Amino acid sequence: MSTLPLKENLEKYTHIDSCPIRNVLSRFSGKWPLLILCVLAENESTRFNAIGKAIPDISSKVLSDTLKSLERDGMVSRHLYAEIPPRVEYSLTDMGRSLMPIMGQLIGWALNHFDRFNH
Length: 119
Description:
By secondary structure, the chain is mainly alpha-helical. The chain has helices spanning 6-11, 20-23, 33-43, 48-54, 60-72, 94-117; strands spanning 46-47, 76-81, 87-92.
């Protein structure tokens, strides 16, 4: 636990540019980014349609936008093969892979407490 006085402890969240919750964790707090990262972690290089099949309730546009965002953040790499028709595969970067053990802990916690939230 923090030993900072309450006022100082709360003040760290007011600095918009340097708040890790706002600027890092918020990248994964949406409905889809973590699911996509989990699919990629379990399947290595994965084609767009295969990701969509693994997450059937995501639209193609949202999947595309989320993959672009994850790629921009350095979590996912996109590899385009010069074939006809073109083949595109996505995979986790080293940074994306480094997140997965932490996500595994969160997923374990979620599984242990799922009944409490599933109502």
